[in-house]
Amino acid sequence: MNKQNWAGKIIGAFVGLFAGGPFGLVLGFLVGNAFDQMYARQESPSGQRGASQNAFFRVTFLLMGQLAKSDGRVSESEIEQARFIMDQMGLNEKQRLEAIEYFNEGKSPHLDLQKELQYFMRAVGHRGSLIQMFLEILLSMAYADGQLSLQEKYLLDRVCRTLGISALQFELIHTRVRASQEQFRGRFNDQFRHSHDEIKIAYGVLGVKEDASDAELKNAYRKLMSQHHPDKLVAKGLPEEMMRLAKEKTQEIQTAYDKIKKARRKK
């Protein structure tokens, strides 16, 4: 199968999911296409580009299968999550069959996890954004049934050690993914509309603890705003579609920061 451009589609889909639920996921998927076009122009040689995208595709579905099976059985919600991801990637029948094959191969207790992760690292290198997105995808699968089991946590720890991700780095990614999911669920669940729950989620979006000082809070806010600043992304030559997503993300960060500041003024 020619998996050229699938790394961008996966990345775009999950960026969109964390930014705005299923609607954002569709937007993110379109952004992923734009990302791939830009990526194809900028990266050389083309053979290396294809290798990294193939590795991302293969190892992503292998590890999704491994995570789903890690606690002994694959739940219906985990199967639905895998299908949902394939649907959002727009896989045709042949591509879907290959993704399912990787997913099923990943369920095997004989999967050489270390070998696959080393293959992933050789192909992807030290591109932090790709590694972070890879972990976000795995976390979304781990939380498909609503909770992170001990077996899933152990497997993710192994993945992080192999990829050179520190416990602190992983916890930051974990916190943001969990907060984004809660924020999305909160739109349809009155429980999460309680003021305290909203503030707790806002801290998660910024990746800081509730007892962080005002200075720490401001530093986290400024860092995230700088990373997603549309003008800076434009300067890097990213397409207009990515700018729209960046603006959505900065709005999410701004909203979280404003909620926390308002809550602190009331104390």
Give the uncertain stretches in residue-range form.
19-27, 41-49, 236-242
Put simply, the count of helices is 12
Strand proportion, as a percent range, falls in under 5%
Report the structural category: mainly alpha
Q: What is the H/E string?
A: HHHHHHHHHHHH
Give the terminus-to-terminus CA distance: 58 Å
**Mean of residue pLDDT?**
75
Gross morphology: elongated
Radius of gyration: 19 Å
**Mind describing the biggest β-sheet?**
none
- The total of beta strands comes to 0
Helix content: over 70%
**Based on the structure, what is the oligomeric state of the protein chains?**
single chain
Number of domains: 2
List keywords for this structure.
Helix Hairpins, mainly alpha, 267 residues
Please provide a written account of the structure.
This protein is mostly helical and 267 residues long. The chain is 78% helix and 0% strand. α1 runs antiparallel to α2, α6 crosses α8 and α9 packs across α12.
Short description:
The protein is an all-alpha fold.
Task: Write the SSE topology.
Layout: H1 6-42, H2 46-69, H3 76-89, H4 93-106, H5 113-124, H6 128-142, H7 150-163, H8 167-186, H9 195-206, H10 214-227, H11 230-235, H12 240-266
